[in-house]
Amino acid sequence: MHKHTPLHTHTLPGKQRGAALLIALAITVLAAVLAISAIETGQLDMRKSSILIRSGQAQQLAMGMEDWAISLIQRDQNNSSGAAYDGLEDIWYQQLPLTQVSGGTISGTLIDLDGRFNLNSLLEVDGAVNPLALERFRRLLVVLQLNPSIADQLLDWLDADTSPQPQGAEDNIYRNRQPPGLAANQLLSHISELRILPAMDAANWQRLKNHVSANPQRSGGININTATAEVLLSLADGITRQMINSVIRQRGGGFRSLSAFLQLQVFENINIDPRGLTIRSYNYRALAEIQMDGEISQFETLLQRSGSVYHVLHRRRIIQ
After folding, report:
1. Residue 299 lies in a domain
2. Which parts of the chain register pLDDT below 50?
3. For the whole model, what pTM was predicted?
4. Domain count of the chain?
């Protein structure tokens, strides 16, 4: 009869069993974390790809809006029958209605920037201050009930010297900001630069932005046929809101000549300097709003007309 020799099992001491269990648990947790991370990374990559695709589609639609804006201005020129004036009844003065596109919608607006005060006109070509433009800008600030120091601060931002205007701000002010900076000492490339000025808070910006432009061409002037009521009020001392309401009713599709505007009966006792005024427009802002998958994007293009040629001066996505 054979005796069975019992098999010997090696039992780990209690401390070693605990350590092995912890290692096994750690490996399991690590594997789970890596698996989840891989899934999340894949999802993130998919989301990034989706965002990039939508962004690219939105940009292409914005470019289409730009082409639409240029075609409108060209059609207006072709249909004007030689008319030497631009007004708010021209073909270009319309909105692109909300239009369905693949994956979303697009709408657009074309704005005449020559109906606004050109901030770059504050300086002459030789860098000297344009006194007439400065007077009109100061009056515009009064009309809009804005901080009058904005005028001096903008002059310091534009001019080449480092000597501050009486209520201005030069490098010494911008150096003490976080992050530090300097005055630009050059023309504005976009009106959003105004937000850097010390006196330009959010409320001032909202009231001013729709009445000013930053056109590089300083010789064009304000188109009195498309100018806002506030800009018209700023043209000379003594002009009242009642006068401008009458002017806007009379101008309709536009005055055919500058003299027709200046000789209006309401201006009988008002001395309006004709310099810096025009009945033509050369600078436009095309604004596109695109909605895709519930996300809204805005793009703007600044266009300048020179004869039958159009130049894109600025193109950007508007960050809300």
Report:
1. no
2. 1-12, 46, 48-53
3. 0.79
4. 1
